[in-house]
Amino acid sequence: MDFTIIGTIAILGLLFFLFIGLPLALSFVVTSFIGILVLLNVHGAMSLLGETAYSAIASPTFTVLPLFVLMGAFAATAGFAEQAYKGISKLTGSLPGSLAVATAFGSAAFSTVCGSSLATASVFGRIAYPEMIRYGYEKKFSLGSIACSGSLAAMIPPSGMFILFSLFTDVPVGKLFMAGVLPGLLTALAYVVVIYWKAKRHPEIAPIPDKEKHMKRRDRMAGLLDLWQLILLGGAVLGGMYSGLFTATEAGAIGALGALLMGLIKGPLRSLKTMRSSLRESAGITTTLFFIIIGALFFSRFLGLTRIPFDISHYLVSSGLPGWSIMAMVLVIWFLMGMIIVPAAAFALTLPIIFPIITQLGYDPIWFCIIAMKMCEIAGVTPPVGLNAFALNSAAGKDVKVNEVFAGVWPFVACDLVVLAILLSFPIISTWLPNTMFG
Questions:
Q1: How far is CA 423 from the centre of its chain?
Q2: pLDDT for 19 beyond 90
Q3: Fewer Cβ atoms within 10 A, N terminus or C terminus of the chain?
Q4: What is the pLDDT of residue 210?
């Protein structure tokens, strides 16, 4: 049987496995193993699987992943999200939609030490949602603002999705981290503009609490004191990488150590039970991600054997189609895939094919990563597989239905599309910081 036909059948088989709910890593491994078995033999499939499993995690640079995961677990346990929300709530108290504004900026601040959009949405679902409901905020508006603000962690470093993108493409993760700073801040600002505009036009959906109206300026500025730990830790990690003082792996180690020390000083991590819980959570997340990476790389090697990536790349590059039309096709494919499978699976399935095409067309790989992250943010909150919506639904309580979350996200998705258009039109927003990095 023709290698290309076998590869096409395998891709359809992978999509089927994902559709019926087979775990992501297992879907990649089973599909690839059967495909290589047909192309070669049992010995070849076993040898390639073993070599991939070793090479996927043997490199010292891969320690960046568990270190940043550990940093996020310590930061969540130490109460950094509560600090961010409390401090920014004081600073924005007199604004229309102040609690939603605090959620957007608080999520952005917490993202600098977390790296997981699911964790950010879950934490702020437990912190911000009860406060919004207590002060009479519209339920749909509250849920939409929290779910979309949580997705900022996909863009703002140290995003775990950046790490996965780096592993699939060999683009330096430190440069990807820096590239996400300005687009992440731009997205947070766009959310705040929409929140302010909606709350100003319809005050009933986001009433200003009486105690906020009469708060003195001195008390508002005191909110900055609640942010000093986040500013110190996030600034040290990002500033150290930007200045070339240390690598992304070293930044992860410093961040994890800093979050641990602050958690010990504040108290939450002094408990052995709490410490074990954070370590166990980090180990579980890291193990899952490494299994996904092994499976994805195994699948990409299988695709390489079928020559599908080369054939598609050669056809598109030699077709004479303008680069913007090919980029538009990529965005449409990701948008459709994001509706049915998780972003990590979409990247693992498409990047071995798409990334060589994009680089051959002359597009900046760092800018392309930022565009991918923006699509990831949109996929995280849109039905039917918007993982942030399901995470918030689980965290906010039994009275919240996932369709209510989806109903509230659309004004913010419109913001994401506007920001996506800006990033497509002005690549310098994504590339300026990484291009000025030292080291």
A1: 17
A2: no
A3: N
A4: 64
Q: At which residue do the structure tokens 């009469």 appear?
A: 214
Enter the pTM of the model. 0.85
Contact 177, 158 (CB under 8 A): yes
Question: What's the pLDDT band for 217 if we cut at 50, 70, 90?
Answer: low
- How many helices (H) and strands (E) in the chain? 24, 0
- If phi > 0 it is left, if psi is from -120 to 50 it is alpha, else beta; for residue 342 that is beta
CA 69 to chain centre: 12
Structure tokens at 330: 């990529």
Q: What's the pLDDT score for residue 347?
A: 80
What is the SS3 assignment for 272? helix
Q: Give 149's contacts (C-beta < 8 A, 6+ positions apart).
A: 103, 104, 106, 107, 108, 120, 121, 124, 188, 191
Residue 219's nearest CA partner among 35, 357, 89 is 89
Q: Write the DSSP assignment of 166-224 as a string of letters.
A: HHHH---HHHHHHHTHHHHHHHHHHHHHHHHHHHHH-GGGSPPPHHHHT--HHHHHGGG
Mean pLDDT confidence for 317-324: 78
> Using a CB cutoff of 8 Å and minimum separation of 24, what contacts does 237-242 make?
237/71, 237/112, 237/113, 237/157, 237/158, 238/112, 238/157, 238/177, 238/178, 238/181, 241/174, 241/177, 241/178, 241/437, 242/178, 242/433, 242/437, 242/438
